[in-house]
Amino acid sequence: MRIVTLAVLGLLIGAAPAEVPTGRSREWRSWEKKPLTFTSGGITVAVTPLPCPAQSRGDDTCSWEHFNNQAEVTVTAPGVVPLTVKTDREGAYARIAVVKLRHDDPRPGVIVESQSGGSSGDLTLQLIVPTPDGYTVATSEAAGIRLQGQIEDGPRDLSGDGKIDLVLQDPAFGTVFGCNACTPRPPLIVTVGAGRLVNESRDPALRPVFLADMARLRPRCFSTDRDRNGACAAYVADAARAGRLTTAWAAMMKHYQRDGRSWEWCDIPVSQWAGRNCPAGRTTRFTTFPDALRAILERGGYLPG
Question: Which domain of life is it from (predicted)?
């Protein structure tokens, strides 16, 4: 009788949200159109699908599949005002994790990844950062940082500075030296600093991350694979972060694929284009892989200076 009574009571008041270990992501899939609620580290996260707007944009899932791929994520913690953010409307799905962003934070924060999906899909990142009396938000968009990849479960402090380090990928290398799916990206590591998301990839304390990635890429770069230049580009980028650029560059010069290709890049960001094409006279052409690689390293801040 007691078991039946408790079961009925649970149906009347609603089942308690699932308890999830801190650092473990829960995935919200827009196409399932279901709410998601869980607790972790003493706080509650509720993900609520948003209805389609009255006027669709014409290029979104509301127009084609009649559901909104955007949701509201609300974070509730004892004693503070709840905070709500919206996932990226371009994202196909979202991954949410509760984690201590800094060792001295008063309570855990929340990582919200909005994933576009696919081999060339970017992600946008929102960090819900604890403050003494509530929360604030740091975003990759506000910081001007493009990201790809996926944050692994259990992110931790890799540099020893008391702040969590999130290891993702640099999208600047995608499609440049090979197909998107077969071109490796070097790691790009971000953290929270002074309430903002910052790229900390140049921190010498993080060099072990890049040394490990060099070991992963070395066999492919120094192989006879006809598409090895993409791996060599990421390998040299890793070496620049790890303080091994001179040696890695010399090795790359002996092994890269000489296939007669050339590369032409726009010298200004897409945001400054007048239309869909790079303005006339604002492109630079590279006729060798080393020249093109040096240019992308300079643009990405990989070279000293």
Answer: Bacteria
